[in-house]
């Protein structure tokens, strides 16, 4: 089974017919979908910077730009609308679209909102983004959400913002039972440097092939093994991402079993599909 473990509504996944066509052309079975930060009918062109710029500089720099560009009420309102649209598409997809609910941890009614939406939409995971919707890892709100997710058997996909937040995440996640998937190998240099402190409940998404190099993926594999790596495209941020990231995995020199783990079996096990 091949599962695109991280993508947004837009571009090649702009509506259900486009989703099915993209999956079929890539030979993929399912996609984990959440909203984009704004309406994106066409995939964004992203220059192939992977391996050309030190990734820790690139990823944190992109995060600072994201925080400047998205820190407004309009973004939050669009994400709310996008969650509803993703739910509609998932319900009509025959199981090929898996919804992750993009939660705004700053909401005062966060848990009540999650409970209501979970009962209404039956999403399969929660998405958090520190750059688009700023919050601190060392906070009661984060722990509250993580504990709620664990109680409902929901994994949490998290886009971390900075070096200090990555370090705090390592410490916090180690004492939580929640399953976490960290986005885009952000902070990999800190995770690998603290490998003995990183809990087995933490997995690593390799999406956005224009920014995440083959070398970065190999570094993650060397330390954490194929059982902790999750395929993802990050569509529509980049073009032809799903095919590109599947191609990346094929170049890692892994066994058939190890390749299958990354392409979908790891996520299949997490989601109990």
Description:
The protein has one domain (3-271): Metal-dependent hydrolases (TIM Barrel, Alpha-Beta Barrel). The protein is an alpha/beta fold and 273 residues long. Helices cover 45% and strands 13% of the residues. The chain contains 10 helices and 8 strands. Strands 1-2-3-4-5-6-7-8 form an 8-stranded parallel sheet. Strand 7, helix 8 (214-224) and strand 8 form a beta-alpha-beta unit.
List its salient traits.
8 strands, alpha/beta, eight-stranded parallel beta sheet, TIM Barrel, globular, single chain, 45% helix
Give a short overview.
With 273 residues, this protein is an alpha/beta fold. The protein is 45% helix and 13% strand.
**Count of helices?**
10
Which range does the strand content fall in?
A: 5-15%
Distance between the termini: 10 Å
Task: Kindly report the CATH topology.
Answer: TIM Barrel
CATH architecture: Alpha-Beta Barrel
In total, how many domains does the architecture comprise? 1
Please bin the fraction of helical residues: 40-55%
> What is the H level of CATH, i.e. the homologous superfamily?
Metal-dependent hydrolases
Structural class: alpha/beta
Order of helix and strand elements from N to C terminus: EHEHHEHEHEHEHEHEHH
Shape descriptor reads globular
Q: How would you write the strand order of the largest sheet? A: 1-2-3-4-5-6-7-8
Q: Mind describing the biggest β-sheet?
A: 8 strands, parallel
Return the average pLDDT rounded to an integer: 96
Computed Rg: 17 Å
Strand elements, count: 8
Give the low-confidence spans.
none
The first-level CATH class is given as Alpha Beta
């Amino acid at each position: 089974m091949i599962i695109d473990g991280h993508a947004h509504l837009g571009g090649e996944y702009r509506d259900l017919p486009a989703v099915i066509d993209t999956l079929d052309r890539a030979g993929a079975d399912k996609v984990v979908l959440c909203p984009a930060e704004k309406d994106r009918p066409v995939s964004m062109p992203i220059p192939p910077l992977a391996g050309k710029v030190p990734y820790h500089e690139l990823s944190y720099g992109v995060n600072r730009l994201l925080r400047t560009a998205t820190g407004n009420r309009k973004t939050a309102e669009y994400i709310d609308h996008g969650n509803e649209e993703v739910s509609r598409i998932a319900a009509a997809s025959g199981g090929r679209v898996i919804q992750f609910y993009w939660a705004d941890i700053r909401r005062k009614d966060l848990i009540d909102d999650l409970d209501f939406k979970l009962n209404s939409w039956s999403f399969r995971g929660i998405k958090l983004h520190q750059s688009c919707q700023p919050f601190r890892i060392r906070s009661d709100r984060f722990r509250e959400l993580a504990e709620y997710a664990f109680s409902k058997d929901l994994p949490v996909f998290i886009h971390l913002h900075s070096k200090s937040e990555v370090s705090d995440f390592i410490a916090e996640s180690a004492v939580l039972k929640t399953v976490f998937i960290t986005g885009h190998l952000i902070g990999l240099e800190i995770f690998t440097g603290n490998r003995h402190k990183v809990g087995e409940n933490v997995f690593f998404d390799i999406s956005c092939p224009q920014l995440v190099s083959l070398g970065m993926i190999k570094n993650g594999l060397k330390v954490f093994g194929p059982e902790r790596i999750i395929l993802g495209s990050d569509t529509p941020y980049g073009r032809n991402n799903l095919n590109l990231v599947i191609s990346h995995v094929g170049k890692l020199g892994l066994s058939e079993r190890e390749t299958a783990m990354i392409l979908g079996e790891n996520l299949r096990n997490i989601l109990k599909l």
